[in-house]
Design goal:
4-stranded antiparallel sheet; 10 strands; Rieske Iron-sulfur Protein; 114 residues; mainly beta; binds FE2/S2 (inorganic) cluster; 6-stranded antiparallel sheet
């Protein structure tokens, strides 16, 4: 069984509070959100259909999909409002010398290709 390792995502200085930014780590599309409650990493692909979450809106800890307005809690990925039914996957994150690093669980379910 392979273990997840932290990989650099972006500089904290490039992600002010209230903003989100997309990146790709280990072939996975990731969204990093900087909120007043902390920094969180989630899948950047909506669980409802083909939408990149970074095109949506971040309101506090609520992430709103740009396509059909499903709402997720960035702290744990849970669905706050439909039409999405499945939570967004979330990932471990750490801050090292100003760099945000994210660890992808190798056992994570595959993302929908688009
Ligand atoms: S694609 Fe996100 S709510 Fe439909």
């Amino acid at each position: 069984m392979s273990e997840s390792t932290f990989e650099p995502a972006m500089q904290l200085s490039d992600l002010p509070e209230g903003r989100m930014s997309a990146c790709q780590i280990s072939g996975r599309k990731i969204l990093v959100c900087h909120t007043r409650d902390g920094i969180f990493a989630l899948d950047n692909v909506c669980t409802h259909a083909f939408a990149r979450m970074n095109g949506g809106r971040l309101r506090g800890t609520r992430l709103i999909c740009p396509l059909h307005a499903a709402c997720f809690d960035v702290r744990d990925g849970r669905v706050l409002a439909p039409p999405a039914q499945q939570p967004l996957a979330t990932y471990a994150l750490r801050l090292l010398d100003g760099m945000i690093e994210v660890a992808i669980d190798p056992a994570a379910a595959p993302q929908v290709a688009y």
